[in-house]
Each structure stands twice: as structure tokens, then as C-alpha cells.
Amino acid sequence: MSLKVGGAEIIGVVLPGDEILQFNPDVNKERICIGPGLRWEDNVVRATKPGILKKTTKKLYYVDTHQKRYIPQRREFVIGIVLKKKGDYYTIDIGGSEQATISYLSFENASKKTRKEMKPGDLIFGQLLVANKDMEPEMVCIDTYDRAVGMGSLPEGGIMFNVSLHVARLIVNPENPFLLNISKKVQYAIVTGFNGRVWVKAKKQSDMVAIMNCILMLEVMTLKEANDNVFKVFESFSRHGLK
């Protein structure tokens, strides 16, 4: 009997090297997606880290693990911090063991004349184009059609905080009602990276701090428990007159 949590089906506990399923793209007509903690090789999907194997309704398989240290994965979306400029590239902190780079041409409508200018400390949301043990991670802020589609520098005025990687994966799930529940109390914008960084922006500082506290509840509570306490968090901030 399967169990569903946060819109994802729990399949079971896996260890590195465990065979998850056999998949041959030349034979299988139905396509699947594999996420963090899994690797496809020789038509076999295996686990690369210990944790709980989950599957979403969109045929996305991934290993959920309470991990703090981010291991860069190709095609994952991350929030980075600009460290410095180095020639035609910027050095970006993505929370992993190695820093990432991004070219000034890896932005929408960028050219040598209209290159993207950023300064140390700026926040950037992008996708990892390169991520393997033999090369430093490389970010881009455009898709295959050279469109930004929401990627790029994050506006000033928001706040960024860190969560465990499993919490980050939980709140990026479009089937998760938790963020919709928060939106009943306040209008806000949110960007979540698979590297465990979350950026939020609202009209009032107190609302941003309240949203941060709501999301951090997922570190120690189930999704249902956190949902039940969302309104209490906002009431607490309102009762103390925080602006």
C-alpha cells in the first residue's frame, strides 16, 4: 500500500547502488524523469544516495534525503550569490563544495554591447548547465530558446534564507498547497532553489519574516502540522505589532 505525502508517492527506503527500475528509451514508450539521488546508466536507474524514494504524478522519481550540503546536479534550478567578476565570467556561490561560473552572455538579450552587470552580493536565480565531478558547475539564465523564463537577477528588497534540501524540494512541488495557504494571508513572491535557498519578497518586512518562519516549520513539522499553524504565525506577528 503506497503513501502520499505532499503530492508525492512514497515508494520506499533506498541505499546507494539499489536498482530502482529498468528503463530503455528505445523500448519504453512512456517517458519518465529522474531527479536528485538517482542516475540512469545502461538502461537501469539506480540510487546514488540513501533516503526515501518518491514519485510524483508527473512520473518524476527522486530520493528525498535530509541533507544540508548541496551536490550540484545538471538542470537543477539554484539561487546563487555573486562573489566576483573574472574576465567574461562571474563567480557564483551556490552552496556546494565548488563555486559555479556564469558567462555575461548567459542572459536574455545579452551581447558584448549589452552585457549583464552584477556586483558582489547580488542574488541570481538560474539553472545548472554543467555539473559533474570533473568540471566546475556552470550556470545559465536562459533556456534552449534564449529566453529568461523567470531566471536572472533577483530584485532588491527581498530576503533569502536556507532550508534543508528536502524542504526545498517539498515547496517547489506545484501540487503542494502549503504556499497557497500562506497566500491567503499575504501577497508575496517566492523563488526556491534546489540548493536549499529560498528568496521571498512582500510589501512589509514583518510579512517576509512571517513567511520565512512558516516555511522553516517544515524542518520540524509534517506538511499538515505546518499548514495548521500558518495562521497562528501571522497572528503572532500581528499581535506584537511588528511592521
TrEMBL record:
One of its GO terms (biological process) is nuclear polyadenylation-dependent rRNA catabolic process. GO terms for cellular component: cytoplasmic exosome (RNase complex); nuclear exosome (RNase complex); nucleolus. Its main location: nucleus. InterPro entries: Exosome_RNA_bind1/RRP40/RRP4, KH_dom_type_1, KH_dom_type_1_sf, NA-bd_OB-fold, Rrp40_N_euk, Rrp40_S1. It is found in: Nucleus, Nucleolus. GO terms for molecular function: RNA binding. It comes from the Eukaryota. Signal peptide: none annotated. Residues 33-69 form the Exosome complex exonuclease Rrp40 N-terminal domain. Residues 158-204 form the K Homology domain. Keywords: Exosome, RNA-binding, rRNA processing. Transmembrane segments: none annotated. Belongs to the RRP40 family. This is Ribosomal RNA-processing protein 40. It comes from Cherax quadricarinatus.
